[in-house]
Amino acid sequence: SPNLSTCHPTSSQIPDSPHKTSHEVNCCPASPDSGEPIIRDFQFPSPSSASPVRIRRPAHRLALDTEYLAKYNKAVAIMKRLPPDHPHSWHRQSQIHCIYCNGAYYQAGAAADVPFMIHESWLFFPFHRFYVYFHERILGKLIGDDTFALPYWNYDSPDGMPIPDIYMKGELHDMKRATRHLPPAPVAIDYTPDKLDLVDEPPAAEQTATNLALLYQHMVSGASKPELFMGCKLRPGDGACSGMGTVEAAPHNSVHLWVGNASTPEYEDMGTLYAAARDPVFFAHHANLDRLWAVWRRLRGYHGSRPEFDDPQWLDSHFYFHDENADLVRVRVRDAIDMDRLGYAYEEVDLPWLDARP
Ligand code: C2O
């Protein structure tokens, strides 16, 4: 777990990064949560009418829901106008990613300065679940709507593969994306910068079939055990363990790199950890990954709060987030396991990749 008083400038790239250059980044808040910040332990939203279930819907089906789009754009606009060091500001919301993914904190209790990094390990899904959870609740709070839910980028379905149109305009747009990958190009879940920037993209139908087959592999045939799906078991004191779960590798990494601007050395925004969450589509990408985690659990028979690993070193690992009241909250991995207790759900869609056994 991180030691909050250790935030320090760090490198824009982690050791396994596909990028050839790196630079120093400082993602720490200007006035850090040092001294004795008041921290409360996470509490589940109460299952009452006071906290209605938020239903996350597929982004590509929301293009005509003008009422919803107005709300979502308004909430993001408010975030972008907050003073940059307010914990709810767009700036600080996106810096959370840089802090936790580029190792800006050292681990609590470690003998030496060991960076705390959540990628390429079993912390990947739980950390991002809470990141999206608090971001969504803050957006809702800013517009006074406690039913507000983020959309998910349903790229595991043929109609949902391009960057969703709603992210191509207004507050949800980001200039720093690969121009050759804008709609209607379907995402390339097999994307790797080295291989694919040199060649023409395959026809859409071919790419769609490749995507579905790879999803089958990473969600089903190659992900039969939690070790394969969740990633390696990062232990306290370990700097990294470099064992990505199947879905973290693809679609997670591949979609990030595919969206990012390939003509900059580090593929900003989406294609690099320190900048990825500056692009609003980041949150739709991670909502879908969060959903895929829930789908995988269902397919594998993990119900309710049954954890993938009954291991206190995992279950008691924790992270800190500001909640919708701007209180600093400590969340544990064990609080992330049972999605139903968190007051949100995903609108169900077909899973065409289940039939795409190569
Ligand atoms: Cu922490 Cu999509 O990355």
CATH architecture: Orthogonal Bundle
Give the spatial strand order of the biggest sheet.
4-8-7
Low-confidence stretches: none
| Relative helix content | 25-40%
GO molecular function, one term: catechol oxidase activity
Keywords: Copper, Disulfide bond, Membrane, Metal-binding, Oxidoreductase, Thioether bond, Transmembrane, Transmembrane helix
Cofactor: Cu(2+)
Protein name: Polyphenol oxidase, chloroplastic
Description:
This protein has 358 residues and is mainly α. It has ten helices and nine strands. The chain has helices at residues 66-81, 90-101, 124-142, 193-196, 204-221, 226-230, 246-259, 281-300, 312-315, 333-336, and strands spanning 2-3, 10-11, 24-25, 39-41, 54-56, 106-107, 318-322, 328-332, 344-346. The strands form four sheets. Strands 4-8-7 form a three-stranded mixed sheet. The chain has a two-stranded antiparallel sheet with strand order 1-6. A two-stranded antiparallel sheet has the order 2-3. The N and C termini lie far apart (40 Å).
